[in-house]
Write a structure and sequence with these properties.
It is built from 9 helices and no strands. α3 (45-56) packs antiparallel against α4 and α3 runs antiparallel to α9. The chain is an all-alpha fold. The chain has one domain (2-212). It is globular.
Length: 213
């Protein structure tokens, strides 16, 4: 059990990411996860939360305002990159074969999410793994108006970064001992953000089986 926690912490610990590559690696990770199709496996919500938590403890060598503004910028640029990629590849993306860094079902998941929520998917999708990565790509595929996309992109990035990063920062200020329970926080955030996707997948499978019968 102890080795499991150690392995989990090495994969998802914001402090580890920052200590290895610094503040700029943190921005690169956020950029990649919000715009590059192979970035779906990267840490997202809990990375932002722990970055704020570690910032409150003085373990991030920037102020909270610099941290938040930089992360918002990385998230916005990431989505623009995803949009451009989807715009350039178009429907061909749906015919691309699965590989280690690409899964066709993730594009389908993002398209269904977008079709259900419309432009709001670009805001709500920020809070869900996989959808966060592929929603802007799909928006590019269907050629969403760039002005609308820019608005949703800005609102989504600001909301997502502020909710998780500032939550981590202010909770860290209020409860400094939280930094000693990072592995449990990581697991909790993973469960909270993954459960809705699991439920959606089960409902989809149930509907498909029902239609066949």
């Amino acid at each position: 059990m102890e080795s499991f926690w150690e392995h989990l912490q090495n994969l998802t610990d914001a402090q580890s990411i920052i200590s290895r590559g610094g503040f700029y690696l943190l921005l690169i990770v956020v950029f990649a996860e919000t715009g590059l199709f192979f970035g779906f496996f990267l840490p997202g919500d809990y990375l932002l939360f722990m970055a704020g938590l570690l910032c409150s403890a003085g373990k991030v060598d920037v102020t909270i305002s610099t941290l938040v503004l930089s992360l918002i910028g990385a998230g916005i640029l990431g989505n623009f990159t995803g949009y451009w990629f989807g715009y350039r590849t178009g429907p061909v993306l749906f015919n691309k074969n699965d590989s280690l860094f690409f899964k066709k079902r993730y594009v389908t998941l993002a398209s269904e999410f977008y079709n259900k929520y419309g432009g709001m998917a670009l805001i709500l999708g920020r809070f869900f793994p996989i959808v966060r990565t592929f929603a802007p790509i799909f928006a590019g595929v269907v050629k969403v108006d760039i002005k609308r996309f820019t608005l949703y992109n800005f609102i989504g990035s600001v909301t997502w970064v502020c909710v998780f990063t500032l939550s981590g920062f202010f909770l860290g200020k209020r409860f400094p001992q939280l930094k000693d329970y990072l592995q449990y926080i990581v697991l909790g955030l993973i469960l909270v953000t993954t459960i809705p996707l699991v439920i959606a997948y089960i409902k989809k499978r149930y509907s498909e089986v029902k239609e066949k019968n």
